[in-house]
Amino acid sequence: MSITEDWTDVEWDNFSIWLKAMLTSSEGVVTFIKSDGTERVMKCTLVANQLPKVEIKEGAKPRKESTTSMRVFDLEKNEWRSFTIKKVKQVNFTIE
What is the pLDDT of residues 76-87, one digit of tens each? Predict the structure, then answer.
């Protein structure tokens, strides 16, 4: 798959769904352009057993999921981070 800025909204939506599914099952390296214009390479995941335990507070409202950005767990900083989906330049996964 070749990521291009010329994709339609449907293609970006399909990419977002695919990327989330891949990160839910494995670690990945995502290269994207930050809001300040610099490039960032982030090793991240959404694999359940690699995420920190979240304490759910009684009466807390669920976090609204964005359609333009993706929230992931940065494996090098050990913190939650996010990136704008349309700013992704490259994604790499290692299949073992």
Answer: 999 999 999 999
- The span from the CA of 16 to the CA of 13, in Å, is 5
The pair of structure tokens assigned to 69 is 């950005």
Through-space distance between the first and last CA atoms of the chain, rounded to whole angstroms: 20
Strand duo 79-84 + 28-33: pairing? unpaired
DSSP 38: -
81: β partners: 72
Rounded Cα gap, residues 87 and 71, in angstroms: 14
pTM reported for the whole predicted model = 0.87
Alpha-carbon distance of 29 to 92, in angstroms, equals: 5
Whole-angstrom CA distances from 21 to 26, 64, 88 are 9, 18, 16
